[in-house]
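Sat 14:20. Reprocessing the chain from the morning session after the first attempt stalled halfway. Input below, unchanged.
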Amino acid sequence: MMQNPFGPQPDPGLYSYLNLKKRLYKNIQAAGVKDEIFRAVQKAFEAALDKEKLPLSRPERKRLLAQVMKDVLSDMLTKLESGPKS
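Finished this time. Tokens:
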């Protein structure tokens, strides 16, 4: 039976919260979630930009995408911190 990773452990370094967080992050990284999120935002960004019909240079598009991406990720963090809506 697997022990609770947050409970008392014979080797606290092995199952500490930080180690658990690192292991979970590595698994999520391996699943390519970061790339999927980036592609989804980039696709929506390109569609919205096409709809606006704005002629932007590549550097302008790249800078605007970075700003929009930051806003999207910030919104996601805010939503996570506020918890589920009931």
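The helical segments are 17-30, 33-52, 58-82.
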